[in-house]
Amino acid sequence: MLELKNITVAFGERKVIDNLSFTAKKGEIIGLVAPNGTGKTTLFNVMSNYLRPVQGEVIFDNKHKYESEQSEVYIHKHMSTFPEQKDLFEDLTGLEHLRLFADMWKGSRKHIPVVIEYLNMGHYVKRKVRTYSLGMRQRLCFAMMVAADTSVMIMDEVMNGLDITNVALISKKLSEMKQENKLIFVASHLLENLDLYADRVWYLKNGTFVHEQIYKEDQDSFIKVEMDRQQYHFLKQKYELPEEHLYIANHLLCFPLKGLNMKEQTKWLERFLELSDQQLEVGPLGTMEFYERYYLENE
Ligand SMILES: Nc1ncnc2c1ncn2[C@@H]1O[C@H](COP(=O)(O)OP(=O)(O)OP(=O)(O)O)[C@@H](O)[C@H]1O
Q1: Is ipTM beyond 0.90?
Q2: Which of 51, 129, 158, 249 is buried most deeply by CB count within 10 Å?
């Protein structure tokens, strides 16, 4: 449904995106993760044709590219991008913004009252945007995407400035929109939040994806135990650690349970407890661990 082929973007000499390719299909949420200034927005800008790559192409529904005006109109009819707060019109109401997006993309306003109710915006949606708080503006930006109701949605920093209740509300709505067969991209610094609804998370580094995390039912389990470098080296010298273990950012050992029987698992647990008085956790590797693995180097 959306394919990027060999995309390269450079600003001057610096390649921000370097020969990057991917395919994404309807009914999935894809998380995009990287530290500030890595290229997430740049990649989104290429997807929506706000930025021309120096190399590569964007292909929508197997045939539409940003080469002809006809195809560009087709893509933009099916793809919306998260508005930036600074692009809101201070003297228009929230409701007027929702109508604008509904008219431009969906061509109907019937669903707007449902969107307002779902996102608890009834008490402020008829007021001018200039009177809104940061969180109210952010909720409006999200509501505008819901009002547009396109099959592909590109959401940059959707959770910015939201409190826990609103993060939960929007996470729930994202999951529902996935069930409606939409393809949604979410760039976020709220890592654990992505674990709730993403099907895949891509980690961007040096212009390319260094890792693709795929969520599936039967994910491999790990024992996760906090330990400092000294404890880790002690453990490594004393026992033969399996090759697939990870020691992340000088503080966390992730020990794979795959292939171990109950007795072996208990033995390892005992060794860890002997060494570290920190709490142990057992579960699959999450976004937090991958982030630390790729962006916080071990010394
Ligand atoms: N128009 C531009 N001209 C020159 N450099 C640019 C331009 N746009 C982006 N960059 C640079 O490209 C890099 C990636 O920027 P980008 O906005 O894509 O990062 P990001 O991952 O979205 O960051 P953040 O998490 O802070 O939003 C940065 O170093 C930025 O300075």
Answers
A1: yes
A2: 158
